[in-house]
Design goal:
single chain, mainly alpha, 4 helices
Length: about 80
């Protein structure tokens, strides 16, 4: 999975962000949750845009789960 290619520390490059966008576009619902949890674990503000994109592109139960993850990140938990 694309997440294994992303650096676990430090800032992501533009290429890292592009890879994340591609992974989001090609992901199955189960992988979307894994992607959101990985984004929640990231502490840099630049990564929040990807989490917001996941929420915006989802609906129903998936959107509720992703919104909860985004809210947890906003609260720092």
């Amino acid at each position: 999975m694309a997440l294994s290619l992303l650096p676990t520390v430090g800032r992501w490059t533009e290429a890292d962000h592009a890879l994340l966008d591609e992974a989001r576009a090609a992901s199955y619902p189960a992988n979307i949750i894994k992607l959101a949890v990985a984004l929640k674990a990231r502490s840099t503000p630049d990564d929040t845009q990807h989490l917001r994109a996941l929420v915006a592109s989802s609906s129903g139960h998936m959107r509720r789960m992703l919104t909860a993850i985004a809210e947890q990140k906003a609260l720092g938990s």
